[in-house]
Amino acid sequence: MDVTPILENLNDAQRQAVTAPAEPTLVIAGAGSGKTRVLVHRAAWLIDVEGLSPQSLLAVTFTNKAAAEMRGRIETLLKLPVQNLWIGTFHGLAHRMLRRHWREAGLPQNFQIIDSDDQLRLIKRLLKNLEIDDSRWVPREIQWFINAQKDEGLRPQHLDDEGNADRRQMISLYESYEEICERGGLVDFAELLLRAHELLRDNAELLAHYRRRFHHLLVDEFQDTNAIQYAWLRLLAGDQGVPFVVGDDDQSIYRWRGARVEHIHRFQTDFPGTRVVKLEQNYRSTATILNAANAIIANNSSRLGKNLWTEGAEGEAIRIYSAYNERDEADFVIGRLRDWIDQGNARADSAILYRSNAQSRVLEEGLINARIPYRVYGGLRFFERSEIKDALAYLRLISNRDDDSSFERIVNKPTRGIGARTVELMRSYARANACPLWRAAGATASNDLNGRAANAVSAFMSLIERMARETSGLELHDQVDHVIYASGLVDFFKKDKGEKGETRVENLLELVSAAKSFQPDPAEEMSPLDEFLSHAALEAGEGQAEAWEDCVQLMTMHSAKGLEFPLVFMCGMEDGLFPHQRSIADPSGLEEERRLCYVGITRAKQTLFITHAEQRRLHGMDNFSQPSRFIGEIPDEHVEEIRPRVQVSRPMRSAESQTRSRRSTAPASELGIRLGQRVRHKKFGDGVILNCEGQGAHARVEVNFEAAGTKWLVLTYANLEAVS
After folding, report:
1. What is the pTM of this model?
2. Where are the domains of the chain?
3. Catalytic residue status for 603
4. Residue 592's closest CA among 332, 355, 349?
5. Is 251 a residue of the active site?
6. Residue 466 and residue 532: Cα distance in Å, rounded?
7. Does domain 284-380+549-657 have CATH number 3.40.50.300?
8. Which tens digit of pLDDT belongs to each residue from 206-238?
9. Is 36 one of the catalytic residues?
């Protein structure tokens, strides 16, 4: 049999993986090393050369798009239809299995799948039926708890309350939720996986059937599997199955979703005799970019280890820009983008990456002002985000009580016991009397509503009136700051466990930054608040570029995984932002942040800019930061520094920077202080000067305060007193 077409254009390592004998195989596939090609050619090899029936192959991917691409490429390679191939996501394959064996799974034949939003609404109805206070028992927190238990393969009866009353209530709610789903024949996403695992675990005959049928199991993005997904694969493989898994422990960046990088480390133990193949030749990036990525990721201790290389060009140096602040950073990025576009390059071939969604606001403003079309990949523009719209609705209602759309948006957010029936009564009154909802609310609270609903509506109206009084005369940013807290929005989103809730709080705080940097037009005859609200509405109204349009791509580092661009900017590379503050003291968290940096760097094909700011206003606060420790891990020979407009006296990088120890090249006497000197600050108390840098108005000192810890301060504004 001629196997040339299947092995054509494969390198030695890829060929070794594709033609591996029928034994457990772990393919460590570095970024840009052709893992999809290997999976496709492996499937084709098993079907065309090993004589495997297409119906006896199971391949798992993490997205429907990847599954469709894999199926199409196999058909092209074999020149025959393979519609019977079981290729799909974990959820898709689990669903197919449950549909075929609904009776054995204990499900009605017409069971319904509910998405995340449906699940949340069901939980809210459950709390209402049980007359449980949803401000005390937050629906999203309950949703997170239920899904987390299912991802671990745990039912309510498996859980111990550990003597904790709150945990006991959560377990009880999980049990009640399951009863509702059973009665209604409802299956959520986490249930698909758990039920499919239980189906095979509890039906020996069925398990034996699928083990015989699916002798070969192909798995993509193996490093992203969670506990129940891996348990299902192990169960299906048994002792005789041949799992062929492809992944990269250096690109495991979804721990917050339940992904466990340890699965890729445990695989050789769970499947003795595993063959390991490493794909290290990269077909995407220049040698310089790969060498930088290798140097950074080498600092992680818990990895299997590999070293990316390329036969391609050495490429240009990675350019690092030390900005004075976030606006200087945005100006720099947009200037380089203009140069790129003016040279005839497509805007869509460039990407701006950042660690936190809140960073996008200043970049978006700069792109809008420069009239450069852009698209926020996998997310909403800043002023279109739900939590931002909530805060703006409060501000609009404070400014104008007749704003019905704002009234409806926030009358029960955060939840305050004003249900749909109450809102409909107010709407009816407003229609009948041709008046705004605000007036209708006052009238119905006085005459038509029962005591509890009337009290809730009156309390909401009092809250708005009180916030209006308390913010009157305040600076714009203080108004915004007061409203996001007094409205309860910050506390509401803090209760939303996981990264989503934290991101929403960060975005609310970033709205304070937006207000602080907003410059009202003296020619406008509006209050600063009204002008800011108009500005926000106009920015949100700027049409989002469609996916097929030629526009600059903005995205978080997490969203960038799997993508590639000739030109990449990695912005906000500062300690505390990236790596994130919460991960710096956590060794495993810091290693995941470093993996995320590795992912970001390896998105670049030709040109990579890394930017950081000495001063950044983010989440409503001004921060002075050091460059990210990850910058210091890039070898000097791969870096070209670009000086900011505001010059500092010390080189941004030096041999000492590799060990995070920095010293000013300016004489201490020029700065009016000396290292080791004891000083006193009005707010932070007594401390010792550890470091100094810069000159003139931009000179800064690092002070270790006894009570407040280490701070970087601008000397001009710090008003430090020498302590003898």
Report:
1. 0.72
2. 4-99+194-279, 112-184, 284-380+549-657, 383-536, 663-724
3. yes
4. 355
5. yes
6. 21
7. yes
8. 999 999 999 999 999 999 999 999 999 999 999
9. yes
